[in-house]
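I'd like us to work through together how a protein chain folds, taking it slowly. To get us started, please write out a protein record for me. Label the sequence line and the structure token line clearly, so we can match residues to local backbone shapes. Once you have written the record down, we can walk along the chain together.
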Amino acid sequence: MAETNISVDKEQFCCSVCLEVLWEPVTIPCGHSYCMECIKGYWRKCELKEEYSCPQCRRTFSPRPALSRNTMLADIVEKLRRTGLQDPGAKAADVECDVCTGKKHRAVKFCVKCQMLFCEIHLKPHNERNRSRMHPLIEVTKQPQKRICSRHNKLRDVYCRTDQQCICSSCLKDGHKGHSVVSVLEERMEKQKHLEEAWKKSKQRCKEREKELKDIVKYVKRSAQAFEEDSEKIFIRLLRCIERKHSEVKEQIRCEERTALSQTEKLLERLNQQIVEHRRGEAELEALSNTEDHIQFLQNYKTLCAPPDTGSRPSIDVHPYFPLLILRKALTELRDKVSDVCDRELTKISELVDEHDQSAENSQSCLLNTETGTDTHIPPSNPYAFTTD
């Protein structure tokens, strides 16, 4: 029958005591599995209490349960070990066997007692030779000696909380007497709880920061929209004011036009009267010029040739549009002043906005550098709103 490839996780086949892939796995009555040597070493510390417990669920057993190799689990781990799926880190370590003489094979286990690395080929003879003696095996790392006590040549399976370091069982009597000590598994589980709590707090802080970021984005958009609406109202008022003044100026121009036309009509009427009088005088002069009566000519000559009376002659030198010229000049000056005021005030507004942006950027930098637990202040929904009535 063809074998089926199953994707597995290394942690599913790890011993919770040594935290490595199971070696000669055994299953205790509560259902948890451990390396044979790991659970034996753990229970040796419980011999004085005569109460043996599971390192994971803390279920107690009395008397000590008999340990037998879990054949099915051992076969699975062995197949995984051969395929290399159970321990990608071991491949990455790429540590060579200390026994191989020719071509060096990759080591799969480190013997704490022998202080040697063994490949798959040389590991079986080693286990057969030392079946009755204590030769604990650990997973291969690039520097397996770091897991071994250099003074007592034993696995560091105890954690000293007083000195905050991993030690072996012999170190308890030599240098750590009276200290607070627990197994590495217990300390790992304790630290794991703190790590999970820290992870949850960090995840919660990230969610809070994400919510704050979304609130800030909404606030910025809401404030920008409010400012745009307010500025729209202001400019509409300015335009209406200008339009109203424009209408007033146009009405003033029309008024000046009507006044000038009225004066012009009176002037034209008087000029027409003078023209009529001049034409009548021209006819009389022409008739006098054609008369044959010399006496009548001389008598009427003095009257008809007398200089005309200029006292009632209307003046036509007054420019009727002079007020409109003054008004146009005033409007031109007003246009220039308004343009200057707009440019100057808009420059001030830009400078104030730049200063506000710089201040906001500095505040955000300080906020990001502040320790966790501080509250982020969200400004009101419309800080730029102002009355446009």
Observations:
- The beta strands are 25-27, 33-35, 52-53, 60-61, 109-111, 116-118, 137-139, 158-160, 165-167, 181-183.
